Each structure stands twice: as C-alpha cells, then as structure tokens.
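Researcher: Here's my situation. A collaborator sent me these components and asked whether they could plausibly form a single complex. I don't have experimental data yet, so a predicted model of the whole assembly would be a useful starting point for our discussion.
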Amino acid sequence: MRTSRGTTLALRSVALVYLVGLLAVPIGVILWRTFEPGVGAFVASVQTPAAISALNLSLLIVAIVVPLNVLFGVVTAIALARWKVPFRGVVQAVVDLPFAVSPIVVGVSLIMLWGVTGWFGGLESATGVKVIFGLPGMVIATIFVTLPFVVREVEPVLHEIGTEQEQAASTLGASGWQTFWRITVPAIRWGLTYGVVLTVARALGEFGAVIMVSSGFPGVSQTLTLLVHSRYIDDHNTYGAYAAATLLMGLALVTLLGMTLLDRKRSTR
Amino acid sequence: MTATTLPRGDSATEPDPPHDEPAGAPPTREGRRPAATAGRALGLGVVGLWLSVIVLLPLAALTVRSFDEGVGGFWDAVTAPVALAALGVTLGVSAVVALLNAVMGTLVAWVLVRDDFPGQRVVNALIDLPFALPTIVASIVLLSLYGPNSPVGIHLNATRWALVVALTFVTLPFVVRSVQPVLIELDREVEEAAASLGASNLTTFRRVVLPTLAPAVISGTGLAFARAVGEYGSVVLIGGNIPRETQVVSQYIQQQIEIDRPANAAAVSVALLAVSFLTLFVLRVWAGRNQRKEARSS
C-alpha cells in the first residue's frame, strides 16, 4: 500500500504528537522540575536519611527476591520443559496468574493468608515474626508479582535447545549435576539474565502490592516507591516526590537499556 | 478453587504454540538412574509447594474469606452502591482506554513499521518506557504536566480524563507491540495487487490490511483492558479517589482494608479478579478458534 506524501506526513504527525504528549513532555517536565533548582538540590533530596533507608530497603528486597526467583524459577522451567508434570495446563496457568491479578488484590490476598486473622495468622502469634506490616510481607508480595518472569524467559530457551546435548552428555557418563552446570546453565544464561533484569525492574517499581502489606514508616518500612507516594501525599513535599521519582526513573532507564542490549544478545546467540 | 476460572485453565495441552514441540527428541524415561527419578520427584514437590504458597494459597484464602458472611454477604459487598459505582467507573474508563489504544496503537505501529524518519529508533525504544517505569512514577510524571501546577494550563487532576490519561500511559505498549511484528511480516504483494486492481488506499486498508491485523489488535486491546481494570499505582496520585466520580475498584478495595472491612475488600477483589480472568479467558478461547480457522483455510 503506497500512501501519498501528505497521508504519510499526516499519520507520522498524529503518531508523534500522541507519543510526545503522552510520554515525552511529561517526562521532560518532571526532569526539568527536578533539576531546575540545581543538581545539588536533587542530590540533597535523595540523600536524606529517609531516602537512603528507602533505597536500602528496595535493594534489600531485590537482593532477597532475585535469588529465590532464580532458584525456583529455573526448577519450575525445567520441570515444565523436561519432566512429566501432572496437570501441566493448570501449572502453566498458575505461573501466568500473577500477571492477571491486580496489585491491590495481591495485597488483600496476602493479608487474608498471612495477616493476624488470616489462615496462617497463628504463625505470627506463635513465633512473633510479623509477616504483614513487616519485611517478610513485602518480600512475599514482590515475589508474587515477579514470579512469572524467570520461568517465562527460561522455559522457551529450554524447548529451543532440545535435549540432544544433554542426552549426549549423559551418554558420555556425565552426572545429572555435571550436565546441568556444563550444558543447561550456559544455554539458558541469557534468557535467565533477561528474566532477572525484568524481575529487578518490577521489584524496584512495585507499589500497589507492597503498600498494602507495609506499615509505611519513613526510615523503617518505606521502599522507594512508597517514599514517592508519602512525600507527595503525607508531607506535601512535591519537590522531594519529583526527585525520588527521577531517581526511580533513572533506575528504570538503566533497566530499559540493559533489556535492549540483552535482547540483541539473546537473538544473536 | 480458582483453578476453574484461570485464563489458561482451559488448555490441557501446551499453551504456547510457538514452543509447542521441542526441537530435540522428547525426554525418554528409559535408562534413568533411580537418583534422577528421586530428584525429579523432589523437584516437582518443590515446584508445587512454591507455586501453592506464593500464588494459590493467598488467592484461595481471598476467595474463601470473601464468603465469610455467606453468599448474601458477598453479594451485599459487591452490590454496595459505592462499590458498584467504582466498578462502573473502572469498566467504563478501561473500555475507553482500550478503544483509544486500539486506534492509536495501530496507528503508531503503522508509522513505526511503514514510515521512515530520523529518530525513528529512539521513538521505537520509547514505546517500552511505560513498562519499565514504576507505576507510581507514571502517576507523578503525569501529575507534573496535567496536575495542579500544570505548566501548560491543562488541569486534569481528579477527573475521569485523568484516569484515561494515566491508564493510556501505562497500557501504551500492548497494542503497538502486538501489531508491529504482524505488520513487518505482512505480505505487501497482496496490497499491491489490490491497488493495481483499482482499490483505493482506504479500501485496501479496510479489506486487506485490517483483517490480517485484527487478531493482533484485538489481543493487544484485550490485554490493555485487563491491565487497566486492575491498575492502582498510576491512578493513585492523579485520580483523586472521589467515590462515585473517579474512584476505581482497586482504590475502593484499598479503602475497605483501611476502614477495617476485610470481608468487603475480599468480595470486591474476587469480583475484580473475575473480570480480569473472564477478559483473558475470552481472549484465549477466541485466539484458539482463530488459529484453528487459519489452520483449516491454509
């Protein structure tokens, strides 16, 4: 279909105006507002004790969630790709389920299960470990929303590489572990890395599920996203909210860049 | 109990058609060492336990506890006037957002594939930004432009238009990214044949291009709708949370938890889950039927 010059230009303009109005201008405005009082003001605003402890908490949650997701995600992917799994369709659906659940519903569900009056509420009174309104709750909420990423990135790679190399290795006398470390891990490494990057991005950015299960005290149980929210809503510190959002945006941009580079690497593997 | 309404629960077969058949030989069970079999059983147990504790048990607890006060209590919670209003606002705004995505997403995909202009690759990379950006950042980004201190004088704060803008922002990639690959693969000879037979551009688009794109457009639109229905972070700052006006379901649920009505929150959560699952389920069934139709016709 050959469109006339006029039509082409008109379509291009409409698309660009739409994207500029929806994406570029708002992001430009927030960057401008953040850096208008100078870089020093931005640095000061993201170095307050509350901001630093929020960054630390976000990174701590990432540090706990990523290894768990890698471990269980890879086992789940191997199970789905290689083993005879009873109720495979149901298992596949359960893995995708977190994508379909609203973050707020995730929070409510966790309260219903782990809260003081929940099914596992006895755990808290027996051991004194606060799940809801404590770090474990925030970790579990983050695991829920990031669970599909590693599985969904690794499983297709396992299907693609097939089992020939693994079978050859085991014919030559390699043990299960040797085959896994020498054959499977190198083959899935880029898919796994991509899944980890997606997990990190979502873990840093999760808001709805985490705010439901966090007590939200500044300096104690505030992640970076909760800090943006509380600075804007509770403290009426609009500038501080912009600055914290810009910091998060910077982290997101690094992730996006990493995703683009990895995507190229994955496809040329 | 939630398993019966899962989006993918209908398919007993492999749900991902592209990866349907492993390239190599299927794993055989002969010649396995007993240790490997035991390892697998342990692995399966671990997977089952992990998925149950993280995903299934919370949702089961939610579903069971939403009926704490019986079916009547569930029904009362879901049909409370403010809850119904929030549901209505959510569905209405999400429908508008989905339609806007269908039209503008297709247009953007078209421009990215068929047009050629300087900076196109930057624009293409920009499309993924809403997926990479935390939702609360999306909210504050839009607030800085369309909020109370708007530098351009557009005040959308606490209106339904604010909801539309916020949800359009976070769902932007769905349609673009599902239509783009189809457009790239599209056989342009058919279009040229139509043109050489005297069809106008509009006719060619309507009769040749659109039918090929339709499945991708609809699936992207459906995913955008499902995402919009449950969205919270991007609307929380700019939406205003005014009951019966701009309060969306997720905000209503959050409020019910805050005022200590967990049973109400659970019931409305189950209703919201049902809406998302139904959307995704319909999409899957429809996509499956489409694939079979295509397989028959080729």
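Model: Some features of this prediction you could bring to your collaborator: Chain B has two domains: 32-66, 70-297. The CA atoms of residues 110 and 116 of chain B lie 11 Å apart.
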